[in-house]
Acyl-ACP thioesterase (Ruminococcus albus), 235 residues
Amino acid sequence: MFETDRRIYCSQIGEGGQVRNSGLVDILQDTSDRHLMEHPVLAPFFRETGSVMFLTHRQVDIIRRPQYGEHIRTKTWTYELNRMYGSRNTLVLGEKGDVCIRSIAGGAFMDMSTGRPIRVSADLIAQVRSYEKLEMEYLPRKIAIPDEDPSIVCQVPIRRSDIDMNEHVNNARYFDITDELYNECHKAKRLRAEYKFPIKHGDRVFAYRYDTEDGCIISLKDEHGKVYCTVSYSI
C-alpha cells in the first residue's frame, strides 16, 4: 500500500471551477507512478531490464470531484499480479476522509526496446505483496463499441503537449482529446478507457462518437480503422 498527500491547485481545475477529467487521472497516475518508482521489488527490476508496466485499461468512479484548495489523500495498491499482467486499485479521499474517487487500472509488463509484452519470473511475482480488492463495481476491461452508426466522425489533432516521456500520448491526455467531443463531459460519474495501441505525434487520428443511454463512447482510430483507444463516459 502506498499513500500520497496533496492539495488541489489550479493546474487540475478546468471550466466551471471543477477538476478536469484529465486532472483526476493525473492524480491517480502520479500516485501509481510514485508507487512503482519506489517499490522495493519492481523499481529495481524496471531499471535493470528496461521494462515498464504499459497501461491497458482504467475505470474511474467519481463520487464527488475534490474542490480547489482541498487537501486530498490518495492510496494505491496492487490487488492482483501474475507473470504478464497486474491490476491495482486507487482511492482518493477528501480532507474530511470521505471517498471522492474509486478506481481500477490494469497494465502489462512490456520491454521498452521492443514495445512487446514480456513474461516475468515467478520468483519476482512471489516477492510482490498484493492487498485486498476494493469493494466497487468491476466492469470488463474491454469497452464494447455500439453496433450502430456513430453520431460524430471527425479527425482530431495530436499536439506536442499530449506526448509524454515515452514518446506517445499520455493516458490522461486521451480524456483531454475526447472531452472536446462531449459537452457533458464535466458531469461524468464514471470514466473508462481501453488503451490498445499508443498514439504518437504525427499520427492521423479519427474520433467516432456513439451516444448511449447514460453518456457516450468515443473510439479513436487510425485511417484504416485500427483502434488506438476507446473512452466511455457515464453520467
